[in-house]
Write a structure and sequence with these properties.
single chain, 216 residues, mainly alpha, 0% strand, elongated
């Protein structure tokens, strides 16, 4: 097996335009307008943040119906939103409710770095799920690639960079939530998440193409 099969990912580039519109409307615009309206009407901040989370949750549901499958990323985002709201409730600090993606990003980043100590780093499983589509033969073929040193290096590099990127967002997301005005933070936090994920996907796509067409 040659280096040309070192990496195989599907949909490794930027999200399609329809997904970008859904993100802009349901993950950014609608939560901002809802929070501003609720706060203007005297609704407590934490209640307003929790109510606005309905929109990104709806975005995940729409994505699930469109793909007809379990959206693990969406589930991670929902877990992140729920944990940030729970933290805000436990600490009585509504600012945690603004850091919606930070908990899930932090958990993913930590898991990436922990998995680097194993033979199969976390991004190996992500890449396998995307490349195989659940097909048993493709899964077995993807597992066999672990025998190729170049493939192992690519998987470890992907895992390291995604771990660093998601931990960076977690730190920046918390900083945005606690240092910026609420009206700015509610816009900046999801935009920051989208920008970091888009950058990671674009870099992953570049790695994919480089390894699919190695220099002769």
């Amino acid at each position: 097996m040659t280096n040309s099969s070192a990496l195989s990912l599907s949909n490794g580039g930027l999200p399609p335009r329809s997904a970008l519109w859904r993100i802009a409307i349901l993950d950014v615009g609608a939560p901002f307008l809802a929070i501003m309206a609720l706060l203007h009407d005297g609704v407590p901040p934490l209640t307003a943040y929790a109510a606005a989370s309905i929109f990104p949750a709806a975005s995940i549901v729409f994505s699930w119906f469109g793909r007809r499958g379990i959206d693990m990323v969406g589930i991670g985002v929902l877990v992140g939103i729920a944990s940030s709201l729970l933290m805000a409730l436990l600490t009585d600090d509504p600012r945690f409710g603004l850091a919606r993606a930070a908990p899930s990003f932090a958990m993913f980043g930590i898991a990436c770095f922990i998995s680097l100590a194993t033979a199969r780093p976390l991004m190996f499983f992500v890449a396998r799920a995307l490349a195989s589509g659940g097909d048993a033969a493709r899964i077995a073929a993807f597992n066999a690639r672990l025998a190729v040193p170049a493939f192992r290096r690519v998987m470890r590099r992907l895992t390291f960079v995604w771990g660093a990127g998601t931990l960076t967002h977690a730190a920046l997301g918390l900083a945005v939530a606690f240092l910026l005005p609420a009206g700015v933070a509610v816009l900046a936090e999801p935009l920051l998440a989208v920008a970091i994920i888009a950058a990671l996907l674009a870099w992953t796509r570049t790695v994919q193409r480089r390894n699919a067409n190695p220099p002769r």
